[in-house]
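Entry for adenine complex. Fields follow.
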Amino acid sequence: MEFHVITLFPEMFRPFAGPLGRAVEQGLVRVEAHPLRQWGLGRYRQVDDAPYGGGRGMVLRPEPLFAAVESVLEQHPGLWRVLLTPQGERLTQRLVRGLAERRPGLLLIAGRYEGFDERARALADQELSIGDYVLAGGELPALVVIEAVARLVPGVLGNPGSLDEESFGDSLLEYPQYTRPAEFRGLRVPAPLLSGNHAAVRAWRREQALKRTAARRPDLLARTKA
Ligand code: ADE
């Protein structure tokens, strides 16, 4: 799966370490940053300008954004275009699963400064926010999207089964996990997990996931089949 990012800070997309780094090395996932500055206007490669009507800060001009998207799509046709903005639809695991189906991949457009010219919205198939807070730009949101989507690509995770039961897999938080030792500073691993009885383990985990979700995220329970 391919991830292309249009950004003023391409260097933020280079150090891919950890499990995704391995996926990149193995060629399962490709991440390519395209410097917006490359499509800047004039001698100074200008990408932004003062807002009409006045006000704080600078706004990304539409021409470099359109030129960038058109050029990347010419080289890589068929990418699903995603604009990162706090005004977008809030990212959820359901949306992440949908993005993971998009082939050959995603074209992520990261805004900067106080925002972008309203006409640039026409460039996007989808607008996404990673949460109700404001970041300085769309780069970290783009990285969040890349990591959340890439780990669903077959082969990227060591153990595909671990996708099935994780938090939000069926709109529940994950059950508590334990490993050795069976007792640590007086805290014991719950008995059902040590029982070797698979049915008992499954029942305990389901119950814990429901309890935990009810306590921490009752909003999620409303959407879950019991
Ligand atoms: N750009 C700035 N803040 C953002 C957010 N929360 N989500 C997506 N893009 C953003």
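NOTE: The CA atoms of residues 45 and 129 lie 28 Å apart.
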